[in-house]
Write a structure and sequence with these properties.
With about 375 residues, the chain is of the alpha+beta class. The chain contains 13 helices and 10 strands. It folds into 2 domains: about 120 residues, NADH Oxidase, CATH 3.40.109.10; about 180 residues, NADH Oxidase. The N and C termini lie far apart (about 70 Å). Bound molecules: flavin mononucleotide.
Length: about 375
Protein backbone atom coordinates (compact mmCIF):
# COMPACT_ATOMS: atom_id res chain seq x y z
CA UNK A 1 0.00 0.00 0.00
CA UNK A 2 1.43 3.47 -0.91
CA UNK A 3 2.79 5.37 2.11
CA UNK A 4 0.43 8.38 1.72
CA UNK A 5 -2.71 6.22 1.79
CA UNK A 6 -1.57 4.32 4.80
CA UNK A 7 -0.85 7.62 6.65
CA UNK A 8 -4.31 8.93 5.73
CA UNK A 9 -5.87 5.74 6.97
CA UNK A 10 -4.05 6.06 10.27
CA UNK A 11 -5.07 9.72 10.61
CA UNK A 12 -8.68 8.93 9.77
CA UNK A 13 -8.65 6.19 12.37
CA UNK A 14 -7.19 8.51 15.01
CA UNK A 15 -9.67 11.29 14.09
CA UNK A 16 -12.53 8.84 14.32
CA UNK A 17 -11.38 7.64 17.73
CA UNK A 18 -11.08 11.25 18.94
CA UNK A 19 -14.54 12.12 17.59
CA UNK A 20 -15.95 9.04 19.29
CA UNK A 21 -14.23 9.99 22.53
CA UNK A 22 -15.56 13.57 22.42
CA UNK A 23 -19.02 12.30 21.43
CA UNK A 24 -19.07 9.89 24.38
CA UNK A 25 -17.92 12.67 26.73
CA UNK A 26 -20.66 15.02 25.52
CA UNK A 27 -23.27 12.27 25.94
CA UNK A 28 -21.94 11.65 29.43
CA UNK A 29 -22.37 15.40 30.23
CA UNK A 30 -26.02 15.22 29.08
CA UNK A 31 -26.76 12.19 31.24
CA UNK A 32 -25.00 13.53 34.29
CA UNK A 33 -26.73 16.94 33.93
CA UNK A 34 -30.01 15.14 34.57
CA UNK A 35 -28.59 13.37 37.66
CA UNK A 36 -27.22 16.73 38.83
CA UNK A 37 -30.64 18.36 38.49
CA UNK A 38 -32.25 15.69 40.68
CA UNK A 39 -29.46 16.01 43.24
CA UNK A 40 -29.86 19.79 43.66
CA UNK A 41 -33.66 19.57 43.64
CA UNK A 42 -33.57 17.06 46.53
CA UNK A 43 -31.28 19.39 48.48
CA UNK A 44 -33.82 22.16 48.00
CA UNK A 45 -36.90 20.22 49.08
CA UNK A 46 -39.15 22.54 51.12
CA UNK A 47 -39.28 22.20 54.91
CA UNK A 48 -42.71 22.08 56.42
CA UNK A 49 -43.88 22.11 60.02
CA UNK A 50 -41.64 21.49 63.04
CA UNK A 51 -38.20 20.49 61.84
CA UNK A 52 -35.30 18.72 63.53
CA UNK A 53 -31.84 20.26 63.82
CA UNK A 54 -30.46 18.42 60.77
CA UNK A 55 -33.25 19.83 58.62
CA UNK A 56 -32.43 23.33 59.90
CA UNK A 57 -28.78 22.78 59.03
CA UNK A 58 -29.72 21.71 55.49
CA UNK A 59 -31.58 25.00 55.09
CA UNK A 60 -28.58 26.90 56.48
CA UNK A 61 -26.33 25.31 53.84
CA UNK A 62 -28.50 26.69 51.03
CA UNK A 63 -26.99 30.13 51.79
CA UNK A 64 -24.60 31.97 49.48
CA UNK A 65 -20.86 31.53 50.01
CA UNK A 66 -17.80 32.92 48.23
CA UNK A 67 -16.83 30.57 45.31
CA UNK A 68 -19.46 28.20 46.80
CA UNK A 69 -16.79 27.05 49.25
CA UNK A 70 -19.38 26.49 52.02
CA UNK A 71 -16.75 27.32 54.66
CA UNK A 72 -18.90 26.24 57.61
CA UNK A 73 -19.23 23.49 60.18
CA UNK A 74 -22.23 22.90 62.43
CA UNK A 75 -22.37 21.31 65.87
CA UNK A 76 -25.80 20.19 67.08
CA UNK A 77 -26.32 20.34 70.86
CA UNK A 78 -29.44 19.63 72.96
CA UNK A 79 -30.91 23.15 72.52
CA UNK A 80 -28.27 24.80 70.42
CA UNK A 81 -26.71 24.75 66.97
CA UNK A 82 -23.20 26.21 66.70
CA UNK A 83 -21.75 27.39 63.39
CA UNK A 84 -17.99 27.77 63.03
CA UNK A 85 -15.54 28.54 60.21
CA UNK A 86 -13.99 25.69 58.23
CA UNK A 87 -10.58 27.20 57.59
CA UNK A 88 -9.63 24.36 55.23
CA UNK A 89 -12.02 26.07 52.81
CA UNK A 90 -10.34 29.47 52.80
CA UNK A 91 -9.65 31.26 49.51
CA UNK A 92 -6.50 33.16 50.48
CA UNK A 93 -5.94 34.91 47.15
CA UNK A 94 -9.34 36.53 46.62
CA UNK A 95 -10.04 36.73 50.37
CA UNK A 96 -6.74 37.17 52.24
CA UNK A 97 -8.32 38.40 55.52
CA UNK A 98 -11.19 35.82 55.58
CA UNK A 99 -13.72 38.62 55.06
CA UNK A 100 -15.81 36.58 52.58
CA UNK A 101 -15.47 33.50 54.77
CA UNK A 102 -17.17 35.27 57.72
CA UNK A 103 -19.75 36.94 55.43
CA UNK A 104 -20.61 33.43 54.18
CA UNK A 105 -21.01 32.22 57.78
CA UNK A 106 -23.40 35.12 58.37
CA UNK A 107 -25.46 34.15 55.31
CA UNK A 108 -25.83 30.59 56.62
CA UNK A 109 -26.57 31.87 60.13
CA UNK A 110 -29.47 33.95 58.80
CA UNK A 111 -30.98 30.99 56.95
CA UNK A 112 -30.70 28.95 60.16
CA UNK A 113 -32.49 31.60 62.22
CA UNK A 114 -35.26 32.01 59.62
CA UNK A 115 -35.73 28.23 59.36
CA UNK A 116 -35.89 27.81 63.15
CA UNK A 117 -38.49 30.59 63.34
CA UNK A 118 -40.56 29.03 60.57
CA UNK A 119 -40.60 25.75 62.49
CA UNK A 120 -41.95 27.66 65.51
CA UNK A 121 -38.72 27.89 67.51
CA UNK A 122 -37.42 31.14 69.00
CA UNK A 123 -33.70 31.84 68.67
CA UNK A 124 -30.97 33.68 70.55
CA UNK A 125 -27.81 34.33 68.57
CA UNK A 126 -24.55 34.44 70.54
CA UNK A 127 -21.38 35.68 68.87
CA UNK A 128 -18.17 34.33 70.39
CA UNK A 129 -15.43 36.82 71.40
CA UNK A 130 -15.00 39.06 68.35
CA UNK A 131 -16.74 36.49 66.19
CA UNK A 132 -13.60 34.61 65.20
CA UNK A 133 -14.94 31.19 66.23
CA UNK A 134 -18.37 31.78 64.75
CA UNK A 135 -21.77 31.93 66.42
CA UNK A 136 -24.23 29.80 68.33
CA UNK A 137 -27.99 29.73 67.96
CA UNK A 138 -29.88 28.78 71.12
CA UNK A 139 -33.34 27.42 70.40
CA UNK A 140 -35.81 28.54 73.06
CA UNK A 141 -39.55 29.04 73.33
CA UNK A 142 -42.05 29.20 70.52
CA UNK A 143 -42.58 31.96 67.96
CA UNK A 144 -44.78 32.83 65.02
CA UNK A 145 -42.68 34.60 62.38
CA UNK A 146 -43.83 37.92 60.95
CA UNK A 147 -44.92 38.17 57.30
CA UNK A 148 -41.49 39.27 56.00
CA UNK A 149 -39.60 36.52 57.85
CA UNK A 150 -42.12 33.94 56.60
CA UNK A 151 -41.71 35.17 53.00
CA UNK A 152 -37.91 35.10 53.29
CA UNK A 153 -38.00 31.59 54.73
CA UNK A 154 -40.16 30.40 51.82
CA UNK A 155 -37.65 31.96 49.41
CA UNK A 156 -34.63 30.01 50.78
CA UNK A 157 -34.79 27.06 48.32
CA UNK A 158 -35.50 29.38 45.37
CA UNK A 159 -32.75 31.96 45.94
CA UNK A 160 -29.71 31.71 43.72
CA UNK A 161 -26.98 33.98 42.43
CA UNK A 162 -28.35 34.65 38.97
CA UNK A 163 -25.50 35.68 36.65
CA UNK A 164 -27.79 36.33 33.69
CA UNK A 165 -28.70 39.37 31.61
CA UNK A 166 -31.60 41.17 33.33
CA UNK A 167 -34.42 43.01 31.54
CA UNK A 168 -33.16 46.57 32.18
CA UNK A 169 -36.43 47.73 33.77
CA UNK A 170 -36.48 49.68 37.01
CA UNK A 171 -37.89 48.32 40.29
CA UNK A 172 -40.93 50.02 41.86
CA UNK A 173 -40.21 52.40 44.75
CA UNK A 174 -42.31 50.34 47.18
CA UNK A 175 -40.31 47.20 46.37
CA UNK A 176 -37.06 49.10 46.94
CA UNK A 177 -38.40 50.32 50.30
CA UNK A 178 -39.46 46.78 51.18
CA UNK A 179 -35.97 45.47 50.34
CA UNK A 180 -34.43 48.07 52.62
CA UNK A 181 -36.63 47.36 55.63
CA UNK A 182 -36.40 43.57 55.25
CA UNK A 183 -32.57 43.70 55.12
CA UNK A 184 -32.14 45.71 58.32
CA UNK A 185 -29.58 44.23 60.69
CA UNK A 186 -28.05 46.30 63.52
CA UNK A 187 -24.58 47.58 62.64
CA UNK A 188 -25.01 47.20 58.86
CA UNK A 189 -25.83 49.84 56.26
CA UNK A 190 -27.43 49.01 52.94
CA UNK A 191 -27.24 51.57 50.12
CA UNK A 192 -29.30 51.12 46.96
CA UNK A 193 -28.00 52.87 43.83
CA UNK A 194 -30.68 53.00 41.15
CA UNK A 195 -29.84 56.06 39.03
CA UNK A 196 -28.20 55.06 35.72
CA UNK A 197 -25.08 57.27 36.22
CA UNK A 198 -24.55 55.64 39.65
CA UNK A 199 -24.89 52.13 38.17
CA UNK A 200 -22.50 53.11 35.37
CA UNK A 201 -19.94 54.32 37.90
CA UNK A 202 -20.09 50.98 39.75
CA UNK A 203 -19.89 49.16 36.39
CA UNK A 204 -16.61 50.94 35.64
CA UNK A 205 -15.19 49.85 39.01
CA UNK A 206 -16.32 46.25 38.41
CA UNK A 207 -14.46 46.29 35.11
CA UNK A 208 -11.30 47.83 36.65
CA UNK A 209 -11.40 45.18 39.38
CA UNK A 210 -11.94 42.42 36.85
CA UNK A 211 -8.93 43.62 34.80
CA UNK A 212 -6.74 43.50 37.91
CA UNK A 213 -7.96 40.06 39.00
CA UNK A 214 -7.64 38.42 35.58
CA UNK A 215 -4.08 39.74 35.26
CA UNK A 216 -3.15 37.88 38.46
CA UNK A 217 -2.08 34.24 37.84
CA UNK A 218 -2.67 33.35 41.51
CA UNK A 219 -6.29 34.60 41.30
CA UNK A 220 -6.86 32.55 38.14
CA UNK A 221 -5.31 29.43 39.70
CA UNK A 222 -7.51 29.69 42.80
CA UNK A 223 -10.64 30.37 40.75
CA UNK A 224 -9.92 27.42 38.45
CA UNK A 225 -9.55 25.17 41.52
CA UNK A 226 -13.10 26.01 42.54
CA UNK A 227 -14.63 25.77 39.04
CA UNK A 228 -16.67 22.67 38.18
CA UNK A 229 -17.02 22.37 34.40
CA UNK A 230 -19.03 19.13 34.32
CA UNK A 231 -22.23 18.28 36.19
CA UNK A 232 -20.60 15.02 37.26
CA UNK A 233 -17.77 16.80 39.06
CA UNK A 234 -20.13 19.44 40.52
CA UNK A 235 -22.28 16.66 41.95
CA UNK A 236 -19.31 14.63 43.23
CA UNK A 237 -17.79 17.56 45.13
CA UNK A 238 -21.13 19.20 46.06
CA UNK A 239 -19.33 22.55 46.08
CA UNK A 240 -17.58 25.06 43.81
CA UNK A 241 -18.73 27.11 40.86
CA UNK A 242 -20.61 24.96 38.37
CA UNK A 243 -20.04 26.49 34.92
CA UNK A 244 -23.67 26.08 33.81
CA UNK A 245 -24.90 27.94 36.91
CA UNK A 246 -23.05 30.98 35.54
CA UNK A 247 -24.61 30.61 32.10
CA UNK A 248 -21.63 28.82 30.51
CA UNK A 249 -21.92 25.48 28.70
CA UNK A 250 -21.45 22.34 30.78
CA UNK A 251 -18.44 20.47 29.37
CA UNK A 252 -16.48 17.34 30.12
CA UNK A 253 -14.14 18.32 32.97
CA UNK A 254 -10.95 17.88 30.90
CA UNK A 255 -12.32 19.98 28.05
CA UNK A 256 -13.56 22.72 30.40
CA UNK A 257 -10.11 23.07 31.94
CA UNK A 258 -8.54 23.52 28.51
CA UNK A 259 -11.30 25.91 27.37
CA UNK A 260 -10.84 28.01 30.54
CA UNK A 261 -7.18 28.66 29.72
CA UNK A 262 -8.01 29.51 26.11
CA UNK A 263 -11.20 31.52 26.45
CA UNK A 264 -11.36 33.13 29.91
CA UNK A 265 -9.79 36.51 29.07
CA UNK A 266 -10.35 40.06 30.33
CA UNK A 267 -11.83 41.67 27.17
CA UNK A 268 -14.67 39.15 26.82
CA UNK A 269 -15.32 39.06 30.59
CA UNK A 270 -15.33 42.86 30.81
CA UNK A 271 -17.80 43.03 27.97
CA UNK A 272 -20.08 40.51 29.71
CA UNK A 273 -19.93 42.46 33.00
CA UNK A 274 -20.74 45.71 31.19
CA UNK A 275 -23.84 44.14 29.62
CA UNK A 276 -24.86 42.60 32.95
CA UNK A 277 -24.55 45.91 34.77
CA UNK A 278 -26.35 47.83 31.99
CA UNK A 279 -29.25 45.35 32.20
CA UNK A 280 -29.63 45.68 35.99
CA UNK A 281 -32.20 47.81 37.80
CA UNK A 282 -29.80 48.76 40.54
CA UNK A 283 -26.86 47.99 42.76
CA UNK A 284 -26.81 47.25 46.49
CA UNK A 285 -23.75 48.09 48.58
CA UNK A 286 -23.51 46.71 52.11
CA UNK A 287 -21.12 47.93 54.79
CA UNK A 288 -20.64 46.99 58.45
CA UNK A 289 -20.00 49.68 61.04
CA UNK A 290 -17.33 47.49 62.65
CA UNK A 291 -14.61 45.69 60.70
CA UNK A 292 -13.73 42.13 61.75
CA UNK A 293 -15.46 38.74 61.91
CA UNK A 294 -18.46 39.88 63.99
CA UNK A 295 -19.22 42.81 61.66
CA UNK A 296 -18.70 40.65 58.57
CA UNK A 297 -21.12 38.00 59.87
CA UNK A 298 -23.65 40.79 60.43
CA UNK A 299 -23.13 41.88 56.79
CA UNK A 300 -23.72 38.28 55.70
CA UNK A 301 -27.00 38.20 57.61
CA UNK A 302 -28.18 41.46 56.01
CA UNK A 303 -27.05 40.28 52.56
CA UNK A 304 -28.90 36.99 52.88
CA UNK A 305 -32.06 38.85 53.96
CA UNK A 306 -31.67 41.21 50.99
CA UNK A 307 -31.33 38.32 48.52
CA UNK A 308 -34.22 36.40 50.07
CA UNK A 309 -36.61 39.36 50.06
CA UNK A 310 -35.56 40.10 46.46
CA UNK A 311 -36.40 36.48 45.59
CA UNK A 312 -39.76 36.80 47.35
CA UNK A 313 -40.48 39.92 45.26
CA UNK A 314 -39.63 38.09 42.00
CA UNK A 315 -36.25 39.80 41.64
CA UNK A 316 -32.87 38.23 40.89
CA UNK A 317 -29.55 39.13 42.47
CA UNK A 318 -25.89 38.54 41.60
CA UNK A 319 -22.71 39.52 43.42
CA UNK A 320 -20.26 41.77 41.56
CA UNK A 321 -17.61 42.07 44.26
CA UNK A 322 -14.58 43.11 42.25
CA UNK A 323 -14.65 46.67 43.71
CA UNK A 324 -14.43 45.31 47.27
CA UNK A 325 -12.04 42.44 46.54
CA UNK A 326 -9.47 44.74 44.90
CA UNK A 327 -8.63 46.81 47.99
CA UNK A 328 -7.48 49.87 46.02
CA UNK A 329 -10.98 50.35 44.59
CA UNK A 330 -12.79 50.40 47.94
CA UNK A 331 -12.39 54.15 48.68
CA UNK A 332 -13.99 55.11 45.33
CA UNK A 333 -16.89 52.73 45.88
CA UNK A 334 -17.34 54.01 49.45
CA UNK A 335 -17.43 57.59 48.22
CA UNK A 336 -19.99 56.96 45.48
CA UNK A 337 -22.17 55.08 47.98
CA UNK A 338 -22.10 57.83 50.60
CA UNK A 339 -19.94 55.67 52.88
CA UNK A 340 -16.70 57.68 52.76
CA UNK A 341 -14.11 56.46 55.27
CA UNK A 342 -15.84 53.09 55.64
CA UNK A 343 -14.99 49.71 54.11
CA UNK A 344 -17.72 48.65 51.67
CA UNK A 345 -18.21 44.90 52.21
CA UNK A 346 -20.36 43.63 49.36
CA UNK A 347 -21.73 44.70 45.99
CA UNK A 348 -24.74 43.08 44.32
CA UNK A 349 -26.74 43.92 41.23
CA UNK A 350 -30.45 43.22 41.06
CA UNK A 351 -33.27 43.18 38.52
CA UNK A 352 -35.62 40.85 36.72
CA UNK A 353 -35.06 38.16 34.09
CA UNK A 354 -36.91 35.20 32.69
CA UNK A 355 -33.67 33.31 32.03
CA UNK A 356 -33.45 30.16 34.13
CA UNK A 357 -30.03 28.86 35.20
CA UNK A 358 -29.25 25.66 37.12
CA UNK A 359 -28.90 25.87 40.91
CA UNK A 360 -25.48 25.34 42.44
CA UNK A 361 -24.85 22.21 44.49
CA UNK A 362 -24.28 21.77 48.20
CA UNK A 363 -22.42 19.14 50.18
CA UNK A 364 -24.65 16.75 52.12
CA UNK A 365 -25.54 17.69 55.71
CA UNK A 366 -23.34 14.86 57.10
CA UNK A 367 -20.31 16.53 55.49
CA UNK A 368 -20.77 19.75 57.48
CA UNK A 369 -21.63 18.28 60.90
CA UNK A 370 -19.00 17.93 63.62
CA UNK A 371 -19.40 16.01 66.85
C1 LIG B 1 -19.05 36.77 50.44
C2 LIG B 1 -19.48 36.36 49.07
C3 LIG B 1 -18.81 36.84 47.96
C4 LIG B 1 -19.22 36.48 46.67
N1 LIG B 1 -18.62 37.06 45.58
C5 LIG B 1 -19.06 36.76 44.33
C6 LIG B 1 -18.56 37.45 43.20
O1 LIG B 1 -17.74 38.36 43.31
N2 LIG B 1 -19.02 37.11 41.97
C7 LIG B 1 -19.96 36.14 41.82
O2 LIG B 1 -20.35 35.88 40.67
N3 LIG B 1 -20.50 35.50 42.88
C8 LIG B 1 -20.08 35.78 44.13
N4 LIG B 1 -20.65 35.19 45.22
C9 LIG B 1 -21.73 34.22 45.01
C10 LIG B 1 -21.29 32.79 45.21
O3 LIG B 1 -20.46 32.37 44.15
C11 LIG B 1 -22.54 31.91 45.35
O4 LIG B 1 -23.22 32.26 46.51
C12 LIG B 1 -22.21 30.43 45.38
O5 LIG B 1 -21.66 30.01 44.16
C13 LIG B 1 -23.45 29.59 45.66
O6 LIG B 1 -24.42 29.81 44.68
P1 LIG B 1 -25.86 30.39 45.01
O7 LIG B 1 -25.69 31.74 45.61
O8 LIG B 1 -26.56 30.41 43.67
O9 LIG B 1 -26.52 29.45 45.97
C14 LIG B 1 -20.28 35.55 46.51
C15 LIG B 1 -20.95 35.07 47.64
C16 LIG B 1 -20.57 35.47 48.91
C17 LIG B 1 -21.33 34.98 50.12
Amino acid sequence: MPRSISRRAVLTGAGGALALGVGASVLDVRTSAEAYRHYVEDQRAALSGPSDARALVRYATLAASGHNTQPWRFRIGPDEIAISPDTARRTPVVDPDDHHLYVSLGCALENLVLAAGASGQGTNVGISEDGQTGASVTLSGTVTPGADDAAMFDAIPHRQSCRALYDGKSVAAEDLAHLKTASQVPGVDLVLLTERPQINAVRDLVISGNEAQLADPAFLRELKDWLRFSPKRARETGDGLYAAASGNPALPEWLGRIAFDLVFKAPAENDKYARHMDSSAGVAVLSAVSEGPAGWMAVGRACQRFCLMATALGLKTAFVNQPVEVAGLRPQLAEMSGLSGRRPDLVLRFGRTSQVLPFSARRPVEAVLVA
